[in-house]
Each structure stands twice: as C-alpha cells, then as structure tokens.
Amino acid sequence: QVQLVESGGDLVQPGGSLRLSCAASGSIFAINAMGWYRQAAGKQRELVASIISDGTTNYADSVKGRFTISRDNAKNAVYLQMNSLKPEDTAVYYCNALIRPRRTTPVYVYWGQGTQVTVSS
User: Fold this and answer.
1) Cα separation of 84 and 54, whole Å?
2) Do the Cβ atoms of 114 and 70 come closer than 8 Å?
3) 20 to 30 A Cα–Cα from 70, which one of 40, 79, 97, 99?
4) Which class for 52: exposed (0-12), middle (13-18), buried (19 or more C-beta within 10 A)?
5) How far is 41 from 104, CA to CA, in rounded Å?
6) Among 19, 52, 56, which residue's Cα sits nearest to residue 35?
7) DSSP character string of the chain
8) How far apart are alpha carbons 97 and 100 in whole angstroms?
9) Which residues lie closer than 8 Å to 31 by C-beta, 6 or more apart?
10) 48, 81 in Cβ contact below 8 A?
11) Over its length of 121 residues, how does the chain's per-residue pLDDT go in tens digits?
12) Contact, 41 vs 97, CB < 8 A?
C-alpha cells in the first residue's frame, strides 16, 4: 500500500553537491518520521539524517554541517541536500519512513529501493 521512491543519486566530483528526493505514496494517515540511511560497500547501513513530525532533525556526525534534511508535508516528501561531498560519502542512499497507514493501525517502517551516490575524481 505504501511506497517510497527516491531519486537524485549520481556520480559527482569531490566538493560537489547533490540533492536527493524521496516521496511516499499510497495509504498514509500520518508520517511520524522520515530519514535517510546509507550503506557503503562492505559496511553496515547507517543513519545519515532524520526529521520527525515536529520538524526536529538529527544528523550523523560525519555529515553535520554539510548535509541538510528537509520535508514537504503536502507532498509527503523528504529531501537531502548534500554539499561538500567526499569520497567517503559514496554509498547507496535509502529513504526511510515511519508511517501510520490508517487512523486505527500502528506505525510501520518503510524503505525505498535506494539510489547510488558516487563521489570520485
């Protein structure tokens, strides 16, 4: 019923910028939180940034000051503006959301399919 679709991943040079987008669709009563995770080759998936319903944001120390997460509630969308990109930012980036599909249901965790970000000279 609920689908997350992310886009915006690309090959970019060190120091460059990218903007990732993620939109949720389907049965959505409320979105409690949205965020971005990433998984580099051979490593565990890690939280990059998150934003909860009241607008509070959280960032991994490695991206703080370089990345900005934002939301558009009307579009059920979340964005990740990535500046001053480094090779170590290379990973598949996944959109994540905590969504209550209906008033009487609990919240569920949903994941997008991932978008590749490669930072290289």
Assistant:
1) 28
2) no
3) 40
4) middle
5) 39
6) 52
7) --EEEEE---EE-TT--EEEEEEEESS-SEEEEEEEEEE-TTS--EEEEEEETT--EEE-TTTTTTEEEEEEGGGTEEEEEE-S--GGG-EEEEEEEEEE-STTS--EEEE---EEEEE--
8) 10
9) 24, 53, 73, 76, 97, 98, 99, 100
10) no
11) 899 999 999 999 999 999 999 999 999 999 999 999 999 999 999 999 999 999 999 999 999 999 999 999 999 999 999 999 999 999 999 999 999 999 999 999 999 999 999 999 9
12) no
Residues written for the chain: 121
Helix, strand, coil % (nearest 5) of the chain?
5, 55, 40
